[in-house]
């Protein structure tokens, strides 16, 4: 079998060849390309040897093309142009990404996020076509696992966030028909059994989040209807046929119009994280990455403008978890501290197994510590003042610490006063 000699053309050789022809001489091309004249002559000669034909005629006035050289010039310009276009497309895919991005969003979050996100993509990423699929969390989880989405907004408990981006933290509330009890601003979890509920199906992440906390505290719920449709659940509450347990984002419009009422659930507060998940195969896609970076900005703007009743994740929460255990105010009084939940800029903690230093005995009582940032002091639940004694102490975490108890404690009061004065 005869041996085939393959000649591999260097792109640089084509550039130099075109440059010499367009300049009209090796001397002028060397100056234009900033390459030594001898190097240009070498590369052109290698092209001629590789193709086995003369490409240029050299004389005192410069260079001229042969018939073969003319054909190569035409092809070389096409090749170099394609390379230039490819480089531009690859570079611009990062600077100005284009393409289609599919995102799944739960029905509740979609009511506050969909419109602003579409508008932001339209104005900031005009070359991206956004496909948005709204649904209940159960199907969305399945579709995301099956790879139907590039991105998905999902719900998680604090313990199951993993590597996903936390967009916001929301608090569940009891959604009641207007004019129906309870008439207080808050209700303990243990008292929810008195209200007939319409809630999502059992495979729904919202349902699981609430059910887990209810089970942990030994409470029961009167679930009369299981409905996998947010709009139907809201319609049932507005019609007075049932109550529900949802987050404010799901019924923000109806609540603002007085069609439903929201009652804060306490003892404990039930929270969840709103997270952003990305399909692993799309992590390096410029278009997906661009939308992925834009979503947290949109959510932050909505929260700060109070168009989304949620809390943006921040470092203070993480610092609170690690530093609270050595807080001098409570360190000597508490043998166990449990961080239960985070709500907005108001962070609740519960503690038990306190020691009464006056009586010299240990007893179990319920205590809460509340961290409220200065800019949100007006949001501190005023109803707490009516039935619980409030004691305060400054703590260096850009916030204000208040200790709340159902029964008075002289020892804790003294410690609070002492800490405040330092």
Descriptive notes:
With 422 residues, the protein is an alpha+beta fold. It folds into 4 domains: 11-94, Arc Repressor Mutant, subunit A (Orthogonal Bundle); 99-169 and 275-304, D-Maltodextrin-Binding Protein, domain 2; 173-269, D-Maltodextrin-Binding Protein, domain 2 (3-Layer(aba) Sandwich); 316-421, Phosphorylase Kinase, domain 1. 39% of the residues lie in helices and 27% in strands. The protein has helices spanning 11-23, 26-33, 37-51, 67-95, 107-124, 137-145, 205-216, 230-238, 252-256, 286-304, 315-323, 328-331, 384-387, 410-421; strands spanning 56-59, 62-65, 99-106, 128-135, 151-156, 165-171, 173-176, 186-188, 196-199, 222-226, 244-246, 261-266, 271-278, 334-343, 346-356, 361-363, 367-372, 389-395, 399-405. Strands 14, 15, 16, 17, 18 and 19 form a 6-stranded antiparallel β-sheet that branches. The protein has a 5-stranded mixed β-sheet with strand order 4-3-5-13-6. Strands 8-12-7-11 form a 4-stranded mixed β-sheet, covered by helices on one side. Strand 1 and strand 2 (62-65) form a beta hairpin. Helix 1 (11-23) packs across helix 3 and helix 5 (107-124) crosses helix 10 (286-304). The longest helix is centred in the N-terminal third of the chain and has 29 residues, at 67-95. The N and C termini lie far apart (95 Å). Residues 315-422 have low confidence and may be disordered.
